[in-house]
Amino acid sequence: MAELTTNLNYLQPTGFKVSIDRENYPNLEFFCQGVSHPDITLAAGEMPFRKIRNIPIPGGELDFGELTLTTIVDEDMNAYSEMNSWMRRILDNPLLGPLDRSDTAVPSTADITLVVLNSHNNKTRSIRYQECTPTTLGGIEFQSTSGGTEYLTCQMSFRFLDFELI
User: Fold this and answer.
1) Do β-strands 32-36 and 162-165 pair in parallel, antiparallel, or remain unpaired?
2) pLDDT per residue over 8-19, tens digit each?
3) Closest Cα to residue 129, out of 49, 25, 40, 20?
């Protein structure tokens, strides 16, 4: 039987840090302002029952939503440019994929780690998303009528093979 936790502090939305392959994607890591941890769905089979209703049978497979990072856009658009280059590199060479382990090229996938911090900014847990591949590079909305100083952000989404809680 599971026991109630002794830590009654709540997780703060600002208590996180993201790390990606620094050698290839330093700006994606530095300018990350938000992370949306994906949903998990356990696919259920269904068994017909007396023409009334299907009975769900748990099992099947796990399906993950997309990992979404929100990055602030710097004046030189470096993080945006890194993601754009990553996606175009995959498009230019469709044979690059999770099975390509070539040391001569920049890999088409990267592990992304979300470090969860407590109220004292100490690491409590990490979530490592394995073999991430970019799927969406969100739009940037420029507006001349904006009041005050609001910085532009851009969303970036990734599909991944699996994640683990460390």
Assistant:
1) unpaired
2) 788 889 999 999
3) 20
Model confidence pTM above 0.90? no
Domain membership flag for residue 116: yes
**Tokens read off for 77:** 């658009």
Q: Is the pLDDT of residue 48 over 70?
A: yes
CB 166 within 8 A of CB 126: yes
Phi, psi of 123 (to 5 degrees): -65, 130
Longest CA–CA separation in the chain, Å: 64
Average pLDDT, integer, range 74-78: 95
Most confident of the following: 5-9, 75-79, 86-90? 75-79
Q: Is residue 61 assigned to a domain?
A: no
59 belongs to a structural domain: no
Phi and psi dihedrals of 116, rounded to 5? -90, 130
Quote the number of domains for the chain.
1
| Enclosing domain of residue 92 | 16-32+70-98+105-140+149-165
CA distance 60 to 40: 13
Task: Please check whether residue 43 is in contact with residue 60, taking contact to mean a CB–CB distance below 8 angstroms.
Answer: yes
